[in-house]
């Protein structure tokens, strides 16, 4: 996604009309991209790369999911490989 520079954003009501199409194609796009990068391991981020993440804990026994609100504390560990190999 990027900054909307031309046109106007849709209203919530207009957006809801397209939800099924967007949901179906979003899932297809995710599966396509997942298959493309599934075997990649330990890639370093490069200038312009962007990663969004959330850290969750799944409790399958009790059917609960918890979102870690202090995920920013883990970021230095995740950034260490990039800091060690900035190329």
UniProtKB/TrEMBL annotation:
<comment type="similarity">
    <text>Belongs to the glutamate--cysteine ligase type 3 family.</text>
</comment>
<keyword id="KW-0436">Ligase</keyword>
<dbReference type="GO" id="GO:0017109">
    <property type="term" value="C:glutamate-cysteine ligase complex"/>
</dbReference>
<dbReference type="GO" id="GO:0005524">
    <property type="term" value="F:ATP binding"/>
</dbReference>
<keyword id="KW-0067">ATP-binding</keyword>
<dbReference type="GO" id="GO:0003676">
    <property type="term" value="F:nucleic acid binding"/>
</dbReference>
<dbReference type="InterPro" id="IPR012340">
    <property type="entry name" value="NA-bd_OB-fold"/>
</dbReference>
<dbReference type="InterPro" id="IPR003029">
    <property type="entry name" value="S1_domain"/>
</dbReference>
<feature type="domain" description="S1 motif">
    <location>
        <begin position="2"/>
        <end position="70"/>
    </location>
</feature>
<dbReference type="GO" id="GO:0006750">
    <property type="term" value="P:glutathione biosynthetic process"/>
</dbReference>
<comment type="pathway">
    <text>Sulfur metabolism; glutathione biosynthesis; glutathione from L-cysteine and L-glutamate: step 1/2.</text>
</comment>
<keyword id="KW-0317">Glutathione biosynthesis</keyword>
<dbReference type="GO" id="GO:0004357">
    <property type="term" value="F:glutamate-cysteine ligase activity"/>
</dbReference>
<dbReference type="InterPro" id="IPR004308">
    <property type="entry name" value="GCS"/>
</dbReference>
<keyword id="KW-0547">Nucleotide-binding</keyword>
<protein>
    <recommendedName>
        <fullName>Glutamate--cysteine ligase</fullName>
        <ecNumber>6.3.2.2</ecNumber>
    </recommendedName>
</protein>
């Amino acid at each position: 996604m990027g900054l909307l520079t031309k046109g106007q954003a849709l209203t919530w009501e207009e957006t809801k009309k397209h939800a099924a199409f967007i949901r179906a194609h979003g899932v297809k796009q995710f599966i396509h991209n997942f298959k493309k990068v599934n075997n990649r391991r330990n890639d370093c981020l490069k200038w312009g790369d962007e990663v969004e993440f959330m850290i969750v804990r799944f409790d399958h026994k009790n059917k609960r999911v918890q979102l870690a609100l202090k995920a920013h504390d883990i970021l230095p560990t995740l950034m260490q490989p990039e800091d060690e190999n900035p190329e």
